[in-house]
Amino acid sequence: MAENQQAAGNENQSQPQFALQRIYVKDLSFESPNSPTVFQEQWKPQVSLDLNTSHNQVSENQYEVVLSMTVTAKLGEKTAYIVEIQQAGVFMVSGIESNQLGHMLGSYCPTVLFPYAREAIDGIVNKGSFPALMLAPVNFDAIYAQALKRKQEEANGESAEDKAH
């Protein structure tokens, strides 16, 4: 019986493990450079969203993932507001191969963080006296796949270029 428990313990150690340990706002900025005159204009903004993700290893099985987002709302040439946020999380990840680890940190973890960033952005926009901003969901799988493809193309282009020289 002790052998069965030990075997089960060994299996658990090799099993992939994932746990969210903490979510936090690392940085948050709101700017409304043209207020209060911008409030007098008809509210039909052009909203742009820039986002980026990064990660770093905190300890053996812990990774910090940071989702950086910049939302800019413009009325014609006037900037109504700019919101910048770095929504971060600490994730425990173990027993996952390196190619799967990249996908977890570059796609799955930002997907977990996005609703928190979206809520923080909506809240700060409301506090700036602007209408609610509900950002559409983002497909981080597609973004990660595009980034991976771009890296592969750059690597192939560089190796072909190196061979030509």
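^ that was protein a. below is b, sequence first then the tokens
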Amino acid sequence: MEDGFVGLRHILTIVFLSGFAGLMVAPVITDVTVAAVCSGPDDSCSLAVYLTGFQQVAIGLGTMVMMPVIGNLSDRYGIKAILTLPMCLSILPPVILGYRRDTNFFYLYYIIKILTALVCEGAVDCLAFAYVAENIHDRTRISAFSILGGTKTISALCGTLVARFLPIALIFQVSAISFLVGLVYMRVFLKERLNNDDDGEDHHHQDDHNSNDITMLAEPILNDTTIKRVVFIKKQSSLKDMISLMKTSTIFVQVLVVTFFSSFSDSGMQSAFLYFLKARFGFDKNQFADLMMLITIVGSITQLFILPRFASVIGERKLLSTGLLMEVINMAIVSISWAPWVPYLITTVFIPGAIIVTPSACGIASRQVGPGEQGKVQGCISGVKSFGKVVAPFVFSPLTALFLSKDAPFYFPGFSLLCIALSSMIGFLQSLMIKDVPDPPLNKEINNILSEEV
């Protein structure tokens, strides 16, 4: 593997520890929620569904604002400094449920989780993508993104294995410890920029890297170093940065549209999928863990071994469209599941689709700017993803609760999953409109727009 990729080992370790800690609780939180807030053993308890949906909305609203801010701050003050706060706050929620999980402590966890997630949710992933984009050249960036995503998937696999065999109380305790270890590791080992030992060398490397990347970028928005310096001196707000990026690149706007519908569908899955399986087939913690293990095994193989080999040959846009189409087929079939084995088989077969969407979208977006603005770009993408997470629960939480209840207008427990498939279809159609190679006159037009704004 190339030296640049080897240099990413510390950020990959941080992503692994953070993902391991966060995803470990996913198989058990549904059972914990139902046990804490539902009066009886009714697996389709509507209150649990609505609480999950409200949590998604609250967190989504916060992160929609915070992720562009965090990305912008990382460009100014460094990724390592900005990453410290979310990794500190992430420790608090699992500590609460690791101590007790009765109704009162669950609601305490619920409130603390929402407050801390305003800063923590998606921050590690956002800054990790920005770190990779700053340190890896454009031509190999999609492979690096894939390896980063594969590391996150491996962390999910390990976390799911732990959740499968450990008692619930220990799961939350191990999660808190893993967050703490990740924080300490990050502060000790992570370098702000690879292959640089001091600020002078770092600045010189940044200039060289910028000049090299300018010739490689297919559609650089800020491809003039003078303009970039003026932008940093002005220190525009995150909102202005986001609007400026959207004005200067059609491709970037298209990527944001695809990202929204992909996030909208993924958030809908969080509101619907596990509760559908629990109500329809009586799934419990162990079955959730088994399903997630199958998904993560296939996903990690795809991201670590298959996607890096073929990404540069196939192209990011084709990968993006393929992934979205696989998501459509996956949810459409799962929505009509007639036996418990159907979600296992179909989700496992089509999960590579969901796996490759984010690296492909981030890869396309990262090529629209130079290395000095990667935090802004990844922050914008994370903000749009958060917006999708805000909107989705308003649609899918009531829809899921309705069609899993006895008052459904017609019998179709997976109707909300079918609607999720239709949402992914919109993202797929938009992805087909993204050009593989931008028109040559675009760079000149972008520079003129930026010059007028500056």
